[in-house]
Design a protein that fits this description.
Alpha-Beta Plaits, 25% strand, glutamate formimidoyltransferase activity, 7-stranded mixed sheet, alpha+beta, Formiminotransferase-cyclodeaminase, Chain B, domain 1, transferase
Length: 297
């Protein structure tokens, strides 16, 4: 059976009862596995991970959008993470016997159906983008829900599906296709968000840093710290350990220490093995020496 991964992010992470109500639509479905869902209070956002047969995953995501549209009003939403939609982003990732072109087709079908059912404007991004200018999600989402009200009216920012006006409470949604990425956050022992912002600028591609890093700052007020929050969009070309060590080095410039880090959602084993190989100074080690790799060989 073909397997696709989908990682929808929706804009609620504080009201856990509401999160459970929304996510409940994804449980006990045929040919779809709800692998995880991770609400974050400070980001006020939940990251969901689904695996399954392509059409079954598509239908599950469409039902998820119905729930987020019903229960989330972005006019009342605040959080550290950028957002433009109640269901903010829906990426499809090829996992088994899937080509990227199939994920692009799946993204377009899903986006079109969401717009038809709920009148939410849809922007296609990454591999599914309708133009080079729309490949980068950050460019699409710039201005967030509040700014999108006027932005979407400009001809160059008309949605790929739907009228050039946002849904009054659910905003707009980005649907795309991409390779697996690593959502990775590094914690700093300071509450000065300006330091996190400077470090994020130093490591991200747009600031002259790593080619496959998108990064920004975030305040974790409950813990009194800040984060350098990022997506590693190609872990094979930009390793986790390399980013971690660079942030440690940059932090020292400001008299700040790294407290630790966290991975959001799922991560490919290969990405972790590479970092383990580095920190343990392993010689001649590769994925073939991982037990799970050999279980069904």
């Amino acid at each position: 059976m073909k397997i696709v991964q989908c990682v929808p992010n929706f804009s609620e992470g504080q009201d856990l009862e509401k999160v459970e109500t929304i996510v409940n639509v994804l449980k006990n479905r045929e040919n779809v596995k709800l692998v995880s869902y991770e609400p974050d209070k400070d980001y006020n956002r939940t990251v969901v991970t689904l695996l399954g047969e392509p059409n079954a995953v598509k239908e599950a995501v469409i039902d998820l959008v119905a729930e987020t549209t019903k229960y989330i009003d972005l006019n009342q939403h605040e959080g550290e993470h950028s957002r433009m939609g109640a269901t903010d982003v829906i990426p499809f990732i090829p996992i088994r016997d899937m080509e990227m072109e199939e994920c692009v087709k799946l993204a377009k079908e899903t986006g079109k159906k969401i717009n038809e059912l709920y009148e939410i404007p849809i922007f296609l991004y990454e591999e599914a983008a309708s133009s080079e200018a729309r490949q980068n999600l950050a460019k699409i989402r710039k201005g967030q829900f509040e700014g999108m009200k006027d932005k979407i009216k400009k001809e160059e920012w008309h949605p790929d599906y739907g009228r050039p006006e946002i849904h009054k409470t659910a905003g707009a949604t980005a649907v795309g296709a991409r390779v697996p990425l690593v959502a990775y956050n590094i914690n700093l022992d300071t509450d000065d968000v300006r330091i996190a912002s400077k470090i994020a600028k130093a490591i991200r591609h747009s600031g002259g840093g790593f080619r496959y890093i998108k990064a920004g700052p975030a305040e974790i007020k409950e813990k009194g710290i800040v984060q350098v929050t990022m997506n590693i969009t190609n872990y094979k070309k930009t390793s986790i350990y390399r980013v971690f060590e660079t942030v440690k080095m940059e932090a020292k410039r400001y008299g700040v220490n790294v407290l630790g880090s966290e991975i959001i959602g799922l991560v490919p084993m290969e990405a972790l093995v590479e970092s383990m190989e580095y920190y343990l100074s392993l010689e001649g080690f590769d994925m073939n020496k991982v037990l799970e790799t050999n279980l069904f060989n």
